[in-house]
Amino acid sequence: MSDASFDARPLTGPGDAEFGDYVALLKPRVMSLVVFTALVGLLVAPVSLHPMEGFAAILFIAIGAGASGALNMWWDADIDRVMRRTAKRPIPAGKVTPDEALAIGLALSGMSVVMLGLATNWIAAALLAFTIFFYAVVYTMWLKRWTPQNIVIGGAAGAFPPMIGWVAATGSVSVEALLMFGLIFMWTPPHFWALALFMKSDYHEAKVPMLTVTHGRKVTRAHILAYTVLLVPVALGLALTPVAGPAYLATAVVLNAIFLKGAVDIWRRTEAQAEADNYATEKRVFRFSLLYLFLHFGVLLLEGLAFRFGLWAPLGGF
After folding, report:
1. What is the Cα–Cα distance from 183 to 177, expressed in whole angstroms?
2. Domain with 35 in it
3. Gap between the Cα atoms of 169 and 5, Å rounded
4. Is 212 found in the same domain as 245?
5. End residue of a domain, out of 156, 173, 190
6. 10-residue averages of pLDDT along the chain (318 residues)
7. Do 154 and 59 have their domain in common?
């Protein structure tokens, strides 16, 4: 970046942090999604871990997610100062110094990977290490400021947790794990682009090449529809695996019909219409996208537990 205010080097200065500031540094909202999807991947797997092993696995996956968040905030401190929704984060607010954030991120990264390997297996640990690297380096340091496809490729980082949970239990990757990964991976672009439609000024001011900034809202609307169409078969495909049953299939059919309709509604709208109602449709679809992902994995979890106790039967398998 040529503008000095967007220098990629971290800020410096004294910190005045409280405990809550260090918690915020780990992005607890993102961490909660990581924990939930990783837990689902672990519990629907056909191999049962001892409860203490399972607890340890989820704990260290969560710590790894927090480490990624700290490293992300360390590197992005300059643009976080500019964007309204991130200006109060610990580093731009002057609560935590960049050096502290970097040290915490690196320390938690190393600890989470080593401890996950010791608690479960080293394949899961390697996946966690790759996820941290992908989010902190590939997405944060490279893709985010370089390409409007940043959220598409970078979305892989958020899609790995259920796969890591599955591998922690089984020691291997399977079709089920790949489809859970694919569900989050394909969901991420329409979810974030719906947000970007009504948060465009933030990304523009921070000079982040989000699709809304580089190609405009009309193109972004078309991309939301395209990725939602591609998401549907992935979501429904999970119903054909041994981890899903009729409840998941029924839920997926309804949720994907609603999400697809929302994407069509967004695609049909003009900017004049969106501005007239303060992007009500875009905000509605964004909020629904959160429920969409939670319900897919929530039903998978309930059915997985039912399968384990012999109360439910899957629809089929590969």
Report:
1. 10
2. 1-10+19-173
3. 46
4. yes
5. 173
6. 41 63 90 94 91 96 96 91 84 91 97 98 98 93 85 88 97 96 96 87 76 89 97 95 91 98 96 91 96 96 80 54
7. yes
